[in-house]
Amino acid sequence: MAKRIMIVDDAAIMRVMLKQLLTKNGYEIAVEAVSGLDAVAKYPMVKPDLVTMDITMPDMDGIAAVKEILKLDPEAKIVMCSAMGTIDKVKAAIMAGAKNFLVKPLQPEKVLATIAQILG
């Protein structure tokens, strides 16, 4: 069965790009979310195998959303995807519980390799 992924990004173009890349490579998109708050609300309903999470979003940023999702499911696998690739942001994301950090613009090979590695 295909691994189910939740895409969280406030930019529609990023969601479309990730969705196309992932579905082309055998993954199923469980749900899309447009903000951290939206992600936290949808996560328990779909229980995806992995979440791609933007950092800078309205309502609730990605780092706060990671913490909230991990409270709901300590086993959640979350990969941060952000143009904000500063050392501080990367550290904050990993300390919050993210499994890895991808810097935008995303490189398809790196996205696929990272997801494959995390999902085992």
Main pleated sheet? 5 strands, parallel
Q: Helical segment tally?
A: 5
**CATH homology group of the domain at 1-16 and 28-49 and 63-80 and 100-120:** Response regulator
Oligomer: single chain
What is the tally of beta strands?
5
Cα shape: globular
Main β-sheet, spatial strand arrangement: 2-1-3-4-5
Radius of gyration, CA atoms, in whole angstroms: 13 Å
Task: State the CATH architecture of the domain at 1-16 and 28-49 and 63-80 and 100-120.
Answer: 3-Layer(aba) Sandwich
Determine the structural class based on helices, strands and strand pairing.
alpha/beta
What do you see in this structure?
- With 120 residues, the protein is of the alpha/beta class.
- It has a domain at 1-16 and 28-49 and 63-80 and 100-120: Rossmann fold, CATH 3.40.50.
- Helix content is 48%, strand content 20%.
- The chain contains 5 helices and 5 strands; from the N terminus they run βαβαβαβαβα.
- Helix 2 runs parallel beside helix 3 (62-72).
- The longest helix is centred in the first third of the chain and has 13 residues, at 12-24.
- It is globular and about 30 Å long.
- The chain starts with a strand and ends with a helix.
- The model has no long low-confidence stretch (mean pLDDT 96).
Secondary structure layout:
Blueprint: E1 4-8, H1 12-24, E2 28-33, H2 36-46, E3 50-53, H3 62-72, E4 78-82, H4 87-96, E5 100-103, H5 108-119
Parallel strand pairs: 1-2, 1-3, 3-4, 4-5
